[in-house]
TrEMBL record:
<dbReference type="InterPro" id="IPR002575">
    <property type="entry name" value="Aminoglycoside_PTrfase"/>
</dbReference>
<dbReference type="InterPro" id="IPR011009">
    <property type="entry name" value="Kinase-like_dom_sf"/>
</dbReference>
<protein>
    <submittedName>
        <fullName>Phosphotransferase family protein</fullName>
    </submittedName>
</protein>
<feature type="domain" description="Aminoglycoside phosphotransferase">
    <location>
        <begin position="14"/>
        <end position="219"/>
    </location>
</feature>
<dbReference type="InterPro" id="IPR052077">
    <property type="entry name" value="CcrZ_PhaseVar_Mediator"/>
</dbReference>
<dbReference type="Pfam" id="PF01636">
    <property type="entry name" value="APH"/>
</dbReference>
Length: 265
């Protein structure tokens, strides 16, 4: 990365699962760099959902480097996910026709529950060779039994990982949702289910969803538990396939707790 910016810059890895993100700084200037970010980043920046995009450069090998503002700030704490600003920003994302149009033009088609289930079942075939747990198979059975009830006509841009670590509060009190590598066009219940089941006490769901901008109903709740279960399984599988078994165990316990509390097992 130094050869792109010049010798005056100090570049350090920013971590993350892809290893393609970096922090860069020189006297009086700081940037967040990423290799091969989606063109979607430009629309997210224009909408004020991620820190400002400063420049984009295409390299001779075809790689694209993007530079964003590197902001002082911090991730949200789990208890801060209850704040109305979180509901408002997620609502803005889900109701943005500009974001939806751009992601569709980039070739993303609406994700159906059947596709989600098919991928989970295929992935589980490989994982079962080394680790087969009753909770996992009960979760998949639940998804199979309910999949025909989950279809929903309204599709939006979903972030697909609304973990509190991905919410950035800048030092000047601006809230952002970062790390859009896994964004999809899908049922908004995909984002809502993970967020509410992970962070919001059930007695506060109706209030939170009203702040988001919808009046909840039984079909929304049914879709939310379905997608919350499917995402929990997806993350467990991801960690297992990477050999991160301790993290997979932690997430399996969370899945078991959710399923027990809501009568799935």
């Amino acid at each position: 990365m130094e050869h792109i910016l010049g010798n005056d810059w100090t570049v350090t890895p920013a971590g993350g699962s892809t290893g393609e993100a970096y922090y860069a700084q020189t006297e009086g200037k700081r940037l967040f760099l990423k290799r091969n970010s989606s063109p979607f980043l430009a629309v997210l920046s224009a909408e004020g959902i991620v820190p400002k995009l400063v420049w984009t450069k295409r390299l001779e090998n075809g790689d694209v480097i993007t530079a964003q503002e590197w902001l002082e700030g911090r991730e949200l704490k789990p208890e801060e996910m209850k704040h109305p600003r979180v509901a408002a920003l997620l609502s803005k994302i889900h109701h943005s026709s500009e974001l939806l149009d751009m992601l569709m033009r980039l070739g993303k088609h609406p994700l159906s529950p059947d596709e989600v289930l098919k991928d989970l079942i295929e992935n589980q075939k490989y994982i079962d060779r080394v680790d087969s747990r009753i909770e996992i198979h009960k979760a998949i059975k639940f998804l199979e039994n309910k999949v025909d009830n989950i279809h929903h006509d309204k599709h939006v841009v979903c972030h697909c990982d609304t973990n509190h670590n991905n919410w950035l509060l800048s030092s000047y009190n601006q809230l952002y949702l970062i790390d859009w590598d896994n964004a999809m066009v899908a049922d908004p219940a995909l984002d809502l289910g993970m967020l509410l089941y992970s962070y919001i006490p059930e007695e506060d769901w109706e209030k939170w969803l009203m702040e988001y901008g919808i009046e909840p109903n039984s079909h929304l709740y049914e879709r939310m538990i379905w997608y919350a279960t499917s995402q929990a399984l997806s993350f467990i599988q991801w960690h297992q396939m990477r050999g991160e078994y301790e993290e997979a165990d932690v997430r399996t316990e969370k899945l078991k707790k959710m399923m027990t509390e809501h009568g799935i097992i």
